[in-house]
Amino acid sequence: MLESLSKGIQSLITRFAGTGKLTEENVKDALREVRLALLEADVNLGVTRAFIERVKTRAMGKEVIEGVNPGQMMVKVIHDELTQLMGGPDAEPIKFAGGGPTVILMAGLQGAGKTTTCGKLAALIRKKHEKSVLLVAADLQRPAAVEQLKVLGAQLGMPVHTETGMTPPSVCERAVARAKAERIDVVILDTAGRLHVDDALMTEVAEVSRRTQPHEVFLVCDAMTGQDAVNSAKAFNDRLPLTGVILTKLDGDARGGAALSVREVTGKPIRFVGLGEKLDKFDVFHPARMADRILGMGDVVSLVEKAQEVIDERTARAQAEKMFKGTFSLDDFLRLLQQVRKMGSMKDILGMIPGLGAQMANMPLDEREFTRSEAIILSMTPLERLEPDVLSNSRRARVARGAGVTLEQVNDLMRSFKEMKKQFGELRKMGVFGKLMDPTKGLQKDKEKELMRMQEAGVNLLDMQQVKAWRQFSGQKAREDARKQRKRR
HSE of 21 in the Cβ direction (CA atoms, 13 Å)? Predict the structure, then answer.
């Protein structure tokens, strides 16, 4: 998403790197490129003009002209304006009701992914806010919508309220009453959509809103429809008390202009974004983080959050300890590989690392390589995974047949694994891990027994406090033993 815009703005920043100062002429030339990049990204024309004017006004301000580094100042100005354009520096949390169930109304056109988004939002609320959720099937226009919501509810283990022979406003009203009686925390109303905005749709949704008095009204928009998403958002905003927008399908080849336009046109912030088909591919929208990614600064905060969700701290610590000791096996490598894959595609992950966003755009990354690596390791025996050196040519040929790959691909994986272990060994010798990770740094061969004793005593080698305490205790014990021995003599 927004790759063309990101390329355009990053090339502009590179141009300013050697500029002595910002002048009206070079700022004007630069903003012409920004304007083209915004329009290519399908950003609304009016929004583009207003954005360019604001950047120009700030860039030509006195405080910027006197700046030391024009390129960095230009980055700062564009970053601030992009952040403001998409909703401000902070993401807006869900406004939960103080007493009784929180009612969330989901509106939108047909095909935007509204029903799936209801399931994704329910999963996020339960995971991050630990609240119970009732899904309400109020889309009675599309027959499959009710069944789809039932399937989603079964997958999530959540109740789904369905009724026949009633109007959608009545179904929603009765669902809210049920939530109050059963003390359910959140009610999500999946209302009907149409192929286009019409009076019948608006009247029905407005009546649902009037009867249920929702605390949040989210409009679900398909980001791949570009400016159509902005136009439908404006039409819904004129008839409903919208509190935010949810953009879906941002993982596709969408140019992403809707993300930059919808806030400016409707005045309503983007609250959540859908990033894939699975129920966990859904997250809070952070304008400042998106601005960072557009400018090639990466998104380290989101990367860390993703890692914390899928990687257990104890497991990570144990793996780091094995890397340090040189006992990292193919089993450990497989677990690490599976954890990384849970975080998302490698292109997305590497794109979150500062400085790599632009490079990833043209770099071919074959995600199937990870699947092949898993298949190769799983085709090995437990002994082969623990002791890769036993893999003879005949064993490797057997592994290749079992994994459905070539012998050369097996050899490539083994070479990569061996090289990785070698690099860890070199880093350990250089002391790159530091004293916190290498409490045995500087020990000579005659002191290697101490390391073995620490391991036998269950001392965590990555915890300096444990190491120091053990050394202090063992030192005292050694002195007492020596004293006793002298007395006996």
Answer: 10
CB 294 within 8 Å of CB 43: no
Stretch (H or E) spanning 301: helix 300-310
Q: How many CA atoms lie within 13 A of 373 on its CB side?
A: 21
CB distance 31 to 55 below 8 Å: yes
| DSSP structure class, residue 131 | -
Nearest to 75 by CA among 272, 341, 354, 401: 354
Each residue's pLDDT tens digit, 159-179: 999 998 889 999 999 999 999
Give the C-alpha separation, 233 to 445, whole Å.
71
Buried b (16+ CB within 10 A) or exposed e, 308-337: eeebeeeeeeebbbebbeeebbbebbbebe
Question: Taking 50 as the threshold, does the pLDDT of residue 331 lie above it?
Answer: yes
CB-based burial, 363-372: b 16+ in 10 Å, e otherwise? eeeeeeebeb
* pTM > 0.70: yes or no: no
Rounded to 5°, the CA angle 474-478-479 comes to: 120
Residue whose pair of structure tokens reads 């304007």 in the numeric block: 35
For residue 5, the tally of other CB atoms under 10 A from its CB is 26
